[in-house]
Amino acid sequence: MFTGIVEELGEITAVENLPDASRFRLRGPVVTEGAKHGDSIAVNGVCLTVVEHEGDEFTADVMAETLKRSSLGALTVGSRVNLERPTSVGARLGGHIVQGHVDGTGTIVAREPSENWEIVTVSLPAELARYVVEKGSITVDGVSLTVVDAGPDFFTISLIPTTLALTTLGIKRPGDPVNLEVDIIAKYVERLLGDRVQQQEATK
């Protein structure tokens, strides 16, 4: 489990395209400290498994399903990525519960800079709109954020200087894709309420 608090901006150093997957080599001095084979590291919000680790770089395989559901397929050598290690039991939950299981992708629609923050509008797939609410939580490229406004096919987020400086959201431009993970609690509530309604209908 992750919390959406990015630890560092990493970099793609190599990409190997396989028949039904891709193999990435990534540089991240912070997240590779003490890393070993089989560990999990979130890359732009996608939970990947460390295959190899040498120095400040690690290798991870990305399956076809992950490439299909996320924006990782658009990464090339030199691309900057958000990196986060899993949280430990008893640690402070600085963001919100993040699984690293991307629900879909959105696109940066617009950026409105101001003196102390920046409002960013992101497109939202229709099937995810019901999980996104004003002042609720959402993960964008692995960053835990609070929704400012929620529409039928978009939402807005407010980025503080720290987020702009330390994550990829500071360099993304209109038209760039981003990975989205909605609040897992919302999905569980929907499922539980849906089952209850079905049970009530069945007993009528």
From TrEMBL:
Could you list this entry's UniProt keywords, alphabetically sorted: Repeat, Riboflavin biosynthesis, Transferase
Q: Where is the Lumazine-binding domain?
A: 1-96, 97-193
Task: Tell me which EC number(s) this protein carries.
Answer: 2.5.1.9
User: Pfam families recorded for this chain?
Assistant: Lum_binding
Which pathway is it part of?
Answer: Cofactor biosynthesis; riboflavin biosynthesis; riboflavin from 2-hydroxy-3-oxobutyl phosphate and 5-amino-6-(D-ribitylamino)uracil: step 2/2
Which molecular-function annotations from GO does this UniProt entry contain? riboflavin synthase activity
Catalytic reaction(s) noted = 2 6,7-dimethyl-8-(1-D-ribityl)lumazine + H(+) = 5-amino-6-(D-ribitylamino)uracil + riboflavin
Q: Which top EC class is named for this enzyme in its record? A: transferase
The answer on whether this UniProt entry bears the keyword Membrane reads: no
* InterPro entries in UniProt: ATP_synth_asu-like_sf, Lumazine-bd, Lumazine-bd_dom, Riboflavin_synthase-like_b-brl
Q: Source organism's superkingdom?
A: Bacteria
Lumazine-binding repeat boundaries on the chain: 1-96, 97-193
The UniProt function text for this chain reads:
Catalyzes the dismutation of two molecules of 6,7-dimethyl-8-ribityllumazine, resulting in the formation of riboflavin and 5-amino-6-(D-ribitylamino)uracil.
UniProt protein name: Riboflavin synthase
Tell me what organism the protein belongs to. Answer: Streptomyces huasconensis
